Records
---
Amino acid sequence: MTGHFDLVVADDDAAGLCVAACAARKGARVALVRPEAKRPRTARAASAIPNFVWRRLDLQKYDLSFSPVSAIVSLSADGEIVKTVESVARSADDLETRGVSDFDVWSDFVREVDMMTRRTDRLRGEFALDEFGRAEGAGRANGRINGASPIEDLAVLSHSCTDFLDDYFNDERMKTHVGARALSAVGLGGAEPGSVVALAGVFAPSAWPVRSTMDAEDVEKALESACEEAGAEIFSAAVHAVKGAGEKFRIVALSDGQELKTRYLFCASPDAARRAGLSPFAGAAFGAASGAASATIRLKVSDDVVAPDGEDGAIFHLADDLRELQAARDAVVEGRLPDTLPIEFQFSAPGEIIAYTAYCPDRFMEDGEAREWTSQDRQALGARAIERLSSHLGGLGDKVVRSDVSIDGAYDGENAVSAEAPDPRIIVQPASVNTIAAAVTLADRLLHEH
Amino acid sequence: MSTDAPSPVSAGRQTSAGRIEGGIDAVVIGAGPNGLAAAASLARAGARTVLLGATADIGGDGRRREIAPGVVVNDGEHLVSHLDATLISELGLYKHGVEYAARRLDTTYFFDDEPTITLSGDPTQGFQSPDVAALPHAAAFQRFFDEMIRGAGLLAPALAGPRFGGKGATLDEIIERADDEMRPRLMRYASASVDAVLEPVFDGGAFRDLLTAEATFRQGAGPHEPFSFLGLIKRFSGESAGLQGAVAYPVGGPAAVVDALRRVVQNARVDIRAPVKVRDIIIEYDKVAGVELAGGGQIRTSIVVYAESVQSLLSNALGAEDVDIEYQRRVARPAGAIASAQALIKLTKAPSAGDEASALANRLVYAPPAAALRKSFNDARAGAVPEKLAVEAIFPGAIERAGADDNDDIAPVLSAIAHPLPFDPAPSQETMDAVEKAVFDNLELIAPGLAKHIDVAEIRFAAGAGGVFGAPSPAVKDEKDAKSVLLTAAPRGPAPANVFDQWARANAAATASDVDGLFFCGPEAEIGVGLSCTAGRAAAAAALRYGRKKGRVS
């Protein structure tokens, strides 16, 4: 036995690193297991570190230049812009200026999403802690002073995102703005049952994303230092097997033969689980979208390509309407690339665009047969992404100097450590737009119990 | 088979304008299966009960009908899988004519590229057929199935129907009480997608296809959608005559159950009045005080059991202003996207005997490949008629005559349900043609060559709320010119998304109106499809408890 831990965090992307660092800082015994295979680095991770995590890890002392994302901007086909910013009041003003009729419900909406985020966090905690309903036991005896039962939370969160947005907004642009952002990380369709859960954390000022002009690799190096300084042990290996060790513990066997005893094995996202060698279905989780991979498209472009509306520091979303998101999700479920690819992008540095889409199948279905991703598929995806971006950035075609497509979460069933039934000691957090915030919150909750 | 429905209506017993009637313990509004069950339960417990039907057709959609001269079919459900066991014993339905032709139908599954699989209708007995045991994944399937049946057994009480006044278990209480091994699985079953649960167990194959088809059949949520797995649990939580998971066929079809309920209602001296239009439920100090009829008369009562839709409760009977806004929000269903079609087909000759003869008395299911079914749900939701449909078919005549030496007397009628189809209250001719083609194409996979033997066919297209199909055809078609006829029926309501959603709404609908003395058991209080009457029985039980507490019912 190489060690005894409260938490073994599999994978080393920013979410895993933040969870490990935050947990270790709280005094938990933490191991970080990093898969050997290097994956292409992306800038997305950096843009998703929420303020509160930054403060908790004192990231300013690592010589990182972070600033809050200036705005979240959605662009529709006809060039219309909807923009919201960290300040709820300023967002409402901007919406009013642009003639979006729903500006007056924006603060109510953000408040409701905040409530939903708490419900989601609580529910995920109960799923992860395997104490569905039990954590609120005292509340139940007292007539549930703290509100709804977990199953009622589940009922609220089981609805479709589209229905929820229809309840709130009249303006289609507004629905698209919120839907595109919320569903972007998860690759869900808005009409899907349970897709309302994707709204958790979206547009919350408390978890507003920050961005860095630094390379993502440097950001992750800094987070790694934070982990080491906080006392987390780092192992370079993949997960080979997970064995039982009584009800409360698991032995995580690594590919290099070392064995780690732990209370929990934690993966911050289904992709992280896959990279670590685990099936995304191995753990207990609520709301996990299955069958989706994601793509990061990194573009070097000529300097005359400028950000729409002068928002160099914004996150942009391209989606014409909610139907487009649903159609893209349908394509993913059927194992093909969407005809119209919903895309998120940002200008990570002058002359560099990083685009991202979670609307990719994890494997392709052709004539009823599954096949894995090929380089042609990656090229096709890159071409579609550039085409889409081009229509919003004034003809990108000949201004792309270099493009690089990487796929995360592609199916690799043969190597995955799987289980016919979910193991309550393995946590695979569902994909979400605020992966890091949700993961750190969930890990806090797990550790709080001990 | 008799086509004469009993006529229980005491015509002329109307409350006339201006008249106020007293001495009534309970009024049941709505004379569908749930209304009948509620009225029978109340009256047998000694309550003086009035049953108000909106039309003269007591019993609702479960009726017999001629689709061609001399060809009588059952409308509505064609199988029974969830009939409330307590109701059967409390009302003595066996004494009133319910008799099973088959208590546990075996199911034969048909696939695109794999040989058929026949599974025992008694899932607790395992799959002892050596043919099945030799199939790839058979051992994994057996393990998985056993666990699922266990889960279904545990969750059955919560999935049977809504919970009134704190009686009965909720999903979370059941999950909380489960042992450490079962608890995380139940949590997953409640919220996971079919794909998420099946993927780690089967990487493909016939068993995955059949489970996917069973899980999503007549559901509004596709296999990849969260909360869709609970549909499978619900399917196997069915109780028929107290037998877990059974799919049964009563002599005369499920309509015979409704006939028996009607007889119980008559024998229990329920005062049946129909057609009667209810204008308003009278509320005084947040309590039910009576019912006002369209003619102006009133019936004073402290208990109303409401067995029509929530929509009619809010818009007609109660008035939205009397009801908590949060209640309205919780019970209002979003527009549905998915519907089913029912096909009733008279063949030119009786199904042939021979090797397949025994299978004719089985439940026959075509299970498309799981990936194709995912695409079908996407297509249907987007408004297109899918190519591949899951189909469930029975030959009622063969089931009733199972075990007979010859097939000569088997009525050559096939009843089938196909799913998923787009929810479309006013389909174009093009859509109807596409539905017809899709239904026949997929039926062909169960009964090759069927198309050549169709005499008269009728396909109806409806949403699944309440699980009963729509209005009867306007006219009997002439045999000669009607080879196949597609009639659309007005949907009874939007199709619910999934069992979890139905569970949540059913409980909200049944328990939270905040009006004392009002007990709701309309279609929104039902969980899953199929004739169950659990909501009606439970609403009556809650009404009796309320009445006794108030000293109004002895």
Note: Chain A touches chain B through 46 residues (CB under 8 Å).
---
Amino acid sequence: MGDRTVFMQLVERYRAPLISYVYGLTGRRDEAEELAQEAFCRVWEKLPTLRQPERVVSWLYPIAHNLSVSAARKPRLVPIAADPPAPAAPRADDSAEIHRAVAALPEDHRTVVALRHFAGLSHEEIARTLEIPAGTVRSRLSRAYERLRPQLAHLLEE
Amino acid sequence: MPLENSDPLERLLDKAGRAVQPTSPGWSTLADRLTHTPQHAARRPRRWLWLVPAPFGIAAAVALWLILAGGIHPPGNPDNGNRVQAEQLPIRVERRDVDLTILSIAETDGETLYMPQLQQAGRPAPQPGKRATGQAIVKDHRLILNLRAGDNIVRFTDVAATIDPTSVRLVSTTDPINTQVVEQNFEFDLASADALLRRYIDGQIICIFKDGKEVTGYLAAYDDSGLVLAAEPPAAAGPRKARATQSINRAELQALRLSELPAELLVKPTLVWKLRTKVAGRHDTTLTYLCGLINWQADYVVVVIPGDGQKPDRIDLTGWVTIDNRSGATYDKAGLKLIAGDVSRKTDPWAVRPQGRRQVLEEELLDFDSSVELRLGHARREFVEKSFFEYHLYTLSAASTVRDQQIKQLSLLQRKGVEAGRRYVYDPQSTGAAVAVELTAKNEKDNRLGMPLPKGRVMLEQRDSDGESALVGRVSIDHTAVKEEIKLPFGNAFDVAGEFRTIEGVQLARNHRVETNEMRIRNHKTEAIHVRAIGRLGAGGTVTQSSLPFQQHDSKSVYFEFALKANAEQVIVYTVDYQY
């Protein structure tokens, strides 16, 4: 509790999943990292008030969610392209859509997918991080893939 | 990242994972940030506190149930759909929403707009080129209730005081074909002491003095200092005869009593239409007009984080848009659009030139508005489309209220860790011996930018080793499109010197001369620098020989770009052939 080194290890592990989550919510990659950093700072600020510090990760996502919603509500000037939109062409980067789909998963599914594919952890590492059996990690991943597959089917047809 | 997966979905997720790997420099300073972030003290759980708001929640639920089940309806539902009843009710106008498109022009000439109310109020219209005025297109969506089939008199208030009445258009979106404005008036004779007295010339007034004495008479004349009262009213007919008059100093008066407020005087500027329609009842309408004295500009703060030779310089860029509204109207929850760009003053030679004060700019703006497009000729529309593409349009992601006499600031962008280059510019024939330092940053997505940046002022700050920022200058940037280079002049270099001389000049003929010039640039710094040396050619000059490769900047100048090592000198010799 309050140990900055331990907290930075948590940051190290969860920053990519959190960037993905914010990116999925806002669709703005450039803002996602700043919002994710802000979410970590907010959690750090309130860490001593947390009754179950071991559940700090379940705090992260709602805080990041609220920050993303506030950022989206804040009036912001955005440029409008003067040129007409180009005809539909194959997209070079579909990552925004993928992150949006992952962000919409239930929390336990989202966490394992993000730790596996965005933080690059093995099943065993995820099991140790979340303190759940490796079999549960596999079954959650499998169910998450089942949910994602129809949503991202059009991106899989290659 | 996990090992390459055979499942396409897993491969797709791995690929997406690569797009969210941290790149922001903020992560490396997060640990320091946490050190400076105070943590909240741990608190004791208050287990029963959640019960406190329960009575309020129950009360709210009961109230909601009463409203839903008891048939309590919100008052003033405008659309009852009963047209027979509508014909008996007075015409009402309700404001729905408003869109505001503000044009950024550094020097909008005041005569572009005809602003009679402003002139009547004694505020002189801005002189052309003297000061920034700004212009905006207002699209005001209003609901007109209880219109009758046939002719109606409709009054719109709450329009800008700086409205150009010649630009006003009203379109009924409910029935655009069968609804037309037969007559339009802008009434701006607002109730003021002078306006009232003007109406009471030859009318009876009562002057009440500070000592309580009252004098009744007929107002013969007035000015700022006094009134002239006649004892009798003027003769209605027949020869004029002399009347006894009395002069009264206005400073001695406590009050003037008038019998009534003239009906034609208004409290607010008002647009009055005679509106003819075949469809009675409710009409959705769009009112479009131009108004003046509303402007916007961009302001930036750039914090320079110097590199250390290994790492490049970085900048944190914050952009703000400042809207200055002095148009005399408040735009409540307005959809806001800002147009940036230097407005072309070219005119379409085939278009009918507007009469009087309306100029091409105003037509371009109105043509841009789709609701007015039908009224304008095809040739002119084409012309406008081309012109419009010279601009950049910014819109606000949410509605915002712009109040009268208000300066409003909105965030344009906030970017951290933008990579910037430092370039030393030596331009001896233009700026003398000094070598200017210029920060350059590519306006690209890969460099955390990639949005068109409107012209604006820049406050330059530099972060020192303690992490504190100090103001180092104020500069300006021009409109910078995506993929272009942002240039920030950063002052003159101390450790870089330049020298220029013409080493040979030969007049070959009366209109033919050849000159050989030499530039020497010395770097006294302990690190290598990137230099751009500019050679001015003048009219008719061509570089025929040079000791370094050069780029033609324009017809009158070339530049040499090179890296200059620490404590080194670069000599450039080039020959210019002038034929004039």
Note: The radius of gyration of chain A is 17 Å.
